[in-house]
Design goal:
38% of the residues lie in helices and 39% in strands. The protein is of the alpha+beta class. The protein has a five-stranded antiparallel beta sheet with strand order 1-2-3-4-5. The chain is elongated. Keywords: Signal. It comes from Aquicella siphonis. This is Surface antigen domain-containing protein.
């Protein structure tokens, strides 16, 4: 088999594997709690998140909810520390929307007076 044929087959294989991985990832995201958030849910969530990152002590739980849609959740900050001149913290989320639950922990650092995921 020629080298160009082998390379073409390998490229095709990796493209198909990549597309499969993308499809699985998209299926996961389409069924996450946050994928069901309305604009109002996002506004409440983002306002709560900013308040928690700026003011809540490590380990304290802050809840949020939107009575209009039934979406709700809570956040718990932890591991506040300085890193490369920035204040960083971990933030655990638990959210429910459309009877779907989701959770995760993300690292945020404050740069130029704005919290960013790192």
């Amino acid at each position: 088999m020629k080298t160009t044929t082998k390379i073409s087959i390998l490229c095709l294989f990796f493209c198909l594997v990549g597309l499969s991985a993308w499809a699985v990832n998209q299926a996961f995201m389409s069924n996450s709690a946050m994928s069901y958030f309305t604009k109002e849910d996002w506004q409440i969530f983002n306002k709560t998140q900013a308040n928690v990152l700026d003011k809540t002590k490590d380990g304290d739980k802050t809840s949020w909810q939107n009575p209009g849609t039934g979406a709700f959740g809570y956040m718990i900050p932890s591991d506040t520390h300085k890193e490369n001149g920035m204040t960083c913290r971990k933030l655990f989320f638990f959210n429910t929307a459309n009877q779907i639950q989701g959770e995760g922990t993300y690292k945020f650092c404050k740069t130029n007076n704005k919290w960013m995921i790192y």
